[in-house]
Amino acid sequence: MPTSDAAPLAAALRTAMGRLTRRVKHEGRIPLGQVAVLGTLDRDGAMTTSDLAADQGVRPQSMARAVGLLLEQDLITRRAHPTDGRKSLVELSDAGRTALEAERGRRAGWLAQAIEAELTDEERALLARSTALLERLAKH
């Protein structure tokens, strides 16, 4: 662990980001794990359940349950793998894309309202500049 003055800043940032993330998640209607799967399929396209499990860092059995729930809700579809007949691919359905966009909109909408209600113009400008720094840290 760093012994410099960055350590207290890192702890405070981690705590604040955790609180904000939990608060934004609270605005959602689709469980976080399911939103994560839908988001991955939206960004990366069709995948096997095993690939989704690896991407999300969960056991294949856990992902199989999540995929089953999403299939029951018609938020994803399953089709044959084009090169391996033993596998199948899951992909976002039109209903899944619509649900994901609505979920993202709810969460971003809450955050936008909070920014407008809580931050001054100067603080908003500072927050806008800070997002680039957070992106840099996330890529480190």
Describe the structure.
- With 140 residues, the chain is mainly α.
- The chain is built from six helices and two strands; from the N terminus they run ααααββαα.
- It has helices at 6-26, 32-44, 49-56, 60-72, 94-118, 121-139; strands at residues 76-80, 88-92.
- A hairpin with a 7-residue loop joins strand 1 (76-80) and strand 2.
- The longest helix has 25 residues, at 94-118.
- The two termini are 16 Å apart.
- The model has no long low-confidence stretch (mean pLDDT 94).
| Coarse morphology | elongated
Biggest sheet strand line-up: 1-2
Computed Rg: 19 Å
Beta-strand content? 5-15%
Give the biggest beta sheet. Answer: 2 strands, antiparallel
Q: Helices and strands: which structural class?
A: mainly alpha
Bin the helical content.
over 70%
Count of runs of 4 or more consecutive helical residues: 6
| Low-pLDDT ranges | none
- Counted beta strands: 2
Mean pLDDT over the residues:
94
Compute the separation of the termini in Å: 16 Å
Write the H/E string, N to C. HHHHEEHH
Keywords:
140 residues; mainly alpha; two-stranded antiparallel sheet; 6 helices; 2 strands; elongated
The gist of it:
It is built from 6 helices and 2 strands, in the order H-H-H-H-E-E-H-H. The radius of gyration is 19 Å and the shape is elongated. 71% of the residues lie in helices and 7% in strands.
Topology:
Blueprint: H1 6-26, H2 32-44, H3 49-56, H4 60-72, E1 76-80, E2 88-92, H5 94-118, H6 121-139
Antiparallel strand pairs: 1-2
Helix pairs in contact: 2-5, 3-4
